[in-house]
Each structure stands twice: as C-alpha cells, then as structure tokens.
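Predict the 3D structure for this chain.
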Amino acid sequence: MSEQTGVLRWQQDHLLGIAADDSISGATMHLKSIDDEFSKWDVDKDKGCIRLTYAGDQLYLTAGSDGAKSSSKLTLSTTTVSPWDFKSKPGFIMWRGSNFVIDVQGRSSGGVIWLYDFNASPAQQWAFIQYANLQAEIEKDKATT
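Done. Predicted structure below.
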C-alpha cells in the first residue's frame, strides 16, 4: 500500500478525528472536527508512518518527549518515525511492538490524544478515511442518523 491522504476519524463520533493544535514541532493532538485544517494526514499503513499533510511533509505523529509509554501525549516531530501498526488489531492504531494504542483522554471533543494501554474501548477506535471519500462518508452518516 502506498501513502494515502485522509483523516483519522474517531469511530464514536464520525465528525471528530485526530488533529494537531498547530503545524509546528512539539504541537499536541486533540480530538477535533475532521474539517479542521490540521486534521489531514498522509498515512502509509505498511510503513507505519503518519505525517501531517499541512506541514509540507515535515512533521510526523509520534509519542511526546517522555517517550512511548501509557499516558504519553501524542505530538508532532521533525524526526521521521514509523511506529504505528494498523494491522495487528483492525480498527485500532497500535504503537508497534507494544500494547499501547491511540486513545482519547476524556472521550469528548477537545480531549487530548495520547497513548494508552489497549482495552478495546470506544475511545480507542479509529478509521482512516481517504480524503477523496470523506464527503461521501459524511453524507452516508447523515442519512443514517
């Protein structure tokens, strides 16, 4: 699979997803509207790479300065990183080689995006939606609600 552009949509509320607070190294991630300018990602599931589209291919999603551990906030880094595992547990984005997944602290809009121990909760369930298909997905969700 080659790299694709899209959003990392939260499965508990399809209008929300992972978004950076800014397009600078060290910026933290929060749960925000998927139409936020910093919610568009370039994803390569085979390589395990997630890169902020807005930042001109320079900023990668990674664990914060305290490293990959439970409760580590996710941030942007200029260092190329490929720690993400999309395949081991479909519907969840794992930190490769660990039991940590991307999770939303507080399970609500504006919540901090962090690594947390896998527990299969709704706060940990994500779908990558290609940007080209996003509008159709939104319309489909509206029709079923």
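DSSP finds one helix and twelve strands in the chain.
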